[in-house]
Recover the amino acids of this structure.
């Protein structure tokens, strides 16, 4: 039996209903590389006003997504695969990428026709090699996304077999290249398909090239001051509300003078694997790996991972409004220990579990919907 409950409100429910959902993150895996405690490996789906993106795609992703979509029907909600615009990979470790090829094949079997982009980090040295059209060193790590892209192509992840276009991008955090078996193209800025979704790579520190992904919504106009405009004709008010300056009865009214301050968009950063305090960007919601507890700080330092306390220190450093933990080691039996540790530094920390949803509204308020599967 599956049940759903609101694990946390950060504003009254009646206020929540007045605000629009801006970003909704579906957590499909919270385990580190060894699945344990009924947790699966990394993979998330993020709904934005500009489309849907997948962040990481560990093994079994397509079956986890199918299961999650089935559970969402209970709540009268749907995630349409046709609306997914792209896949953002945080690094090349297989617990974050090994589900990519099977899921592409599943999309093909489902008759997908829309193009899709895939983006992930590589090293600056690899970007140089690609731009020089040099031979890729046979000793380059198998986890480098260049090698994984090529493996996907060799197993049929090409338009002729999938039936839809895939744009394969790589970045070192500054430069972007489109990589295909025929050519490498350097972009002077973030490719349009990615920039229009307000997606930005944030460098992180791990044992392989890695990045976090920041996804934002656009700033919005300030609230229209109806009280100030109440004595004006309706057509004049309508024009001012739509942003047009208007001359009425010999007086010019500036639309900007009838608006409150610009309302900032909201943002989320999803970390992937990283050592603590390597992220240098602000956000409303930080979803950060918490592989270890502080009792295993030495292991975290050795493998460039984070503890729950380290994730909280990162959130504190960048001024994140909310912190959500994920990517737990098999050593962690219950996530309450991780939450307790993080809460000593960042109050209100959330411990994500598989199937959870994190929702940011237009005012930057967070709602946490947790899915509980009862074994009755």
């Amino acid at each position: 039996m599956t049940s759903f409950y609101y694990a946390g409100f950060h504003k009254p429910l009646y206020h929540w209903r007045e605000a629009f959902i801006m970003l909704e993150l579906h957590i499909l895996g919270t385990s580190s590389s060894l699945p344990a405690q009924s947790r699966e490996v990394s993979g998330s789906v993020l709904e934005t006003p500009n489309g849907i993106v997948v962040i990481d795609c560990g093994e079994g992703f397509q079956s986890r997504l199918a299961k999650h979509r089935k559970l969402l029907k209970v709540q009268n909600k749907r995630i349409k695969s046709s609306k997914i615009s792209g896949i953002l990979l945080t690094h090349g470790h297989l617990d974050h990428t090994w589900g990519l090829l099977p899921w592409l094949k599943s999309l093909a079997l489902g008759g997908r026709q829309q193009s899709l982009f895939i983006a992930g980090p590589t090293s600056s040295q690899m970007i140089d090699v690609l731009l020089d059209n040099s031979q890729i060193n046979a000793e380059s790590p198998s986890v480098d996304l260049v090698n994984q892209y090529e493996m996907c192509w060799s197993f049929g992840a090409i338009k002729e077999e999938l039936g839809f276009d895939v744009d394969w991008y790589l970045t070192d955090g500054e430069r972007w290249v489109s990589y295909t078996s025929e050519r490498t193209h350097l972009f002077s800025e973030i490719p349009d398909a990615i920039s229009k979704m307000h997606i930005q790579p944030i460098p992180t520190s791990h044992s392989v090239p890695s990045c976090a992904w920041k996804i934002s919504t656009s700033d919005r106009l300030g609230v229209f001051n109806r009280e100030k405009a109440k004595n004006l004709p309706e057509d004049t008010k309508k024009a001012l509300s739509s942003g047009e300056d208007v001359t009425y009865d010999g007086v010019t009214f500036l639309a900007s003078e009838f608006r409150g301050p610009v309302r900032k968009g909201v943002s989320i950063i999803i970390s992937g694997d990283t050592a603590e305090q390597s992220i240098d960007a602000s956000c409303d919601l930080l979803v950060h790996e918490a592989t270890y507890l502080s009792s295993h700080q030495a292991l975290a330092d050795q493998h460039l991972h984070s503890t729950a306390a380290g994730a909280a220190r990162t959130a504190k450093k960048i001024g994140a409004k909310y912190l959500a933990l994920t990517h737990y080691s098999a050593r962690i039996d219950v996530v309450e220990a991780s939450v307790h540790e993080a809460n000593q530094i960042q109050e209100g920390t959330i411990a994500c579990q598989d199937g959870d949803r994190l929702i940011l509204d237009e005012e930057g308020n967070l709602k946490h919907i947790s899915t509980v599967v009862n074994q009755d």
Remarks:
- The chain has one domain: 2-220+263-373.
